[in-house]
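Async update (no meeting this week)

Hi team, since we skipped the sync, here's where things stand on the single-chain job. The sequence we agreed to prioritize is pasted below, unchanged from the tracker. I ran it this morning and attached the output directly underneath so nobody has to dig for it. Comments welcome in thread, and please keep replies under the output.
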Amino acid sequence: MVSISITSGIELWQFSIQDFPPYINGFFREQEADIKQIIGVYNNLLWVHVGEFHLIGLDVNNGKIVHHIEDMRTIIKSANNNIELGFSLKLKFFLDKEKGILKALLGNSYIEIDLNTLSGLVKKYFGNDWKNGWHIHSTNFYPEEPNRIFFSGYYQLIAGTPNAFGIFDTETAEIIWYDTTKDDSGYFYNPPQANDKFLAILDDKHNLLVYERNAI
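Output:
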């Protein structure tokens, strides 16, 4: 990873992950460490998710490691010690730049990591009963709405495909609106797109569904 000045085009610093250990990927094969996500900048630190579950905070001025959490799962606490997190390598973080909080909605959980304290919390646990609940497949986020995550997912595991989509409120840690596929129409592998007026989602049969935000 290289940082280059926009004004001068001069290389400012480099950061290499070649010394990070390999990990077992989703296909149960050993894979060299890679950059899963460049998350964003908070308090002059660039936060990066490096495979497997490394969370790195780099000084934006020189690229030096300021914080390195070797396994971010170890800092995430829950009131229920018996839960089994669906914490996969598809994990995608969204940065609330005002509060310095990383937000992630995936699988059976909604988690937050506070970059000020380097501590994490499971704020919502949907459980492992897919037939009677939720499992989140993919998510979208807009900085203009830092308390909303737009998602697609599995609701009551109909046909084993992502048959639902909706809006998750990160303040209340609840799904505040959702809809599902109807009459054997398509499924939703990608999350909705949204602005302040409309929410739209394209299913796998190329049907475009559009909703007015003031009506949902």
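Quick observations from my side:
The mean pLDDT is 89.
Residues 147 and 170 are 5 Å apart (CA to CA).
Reply here if anything looks off.
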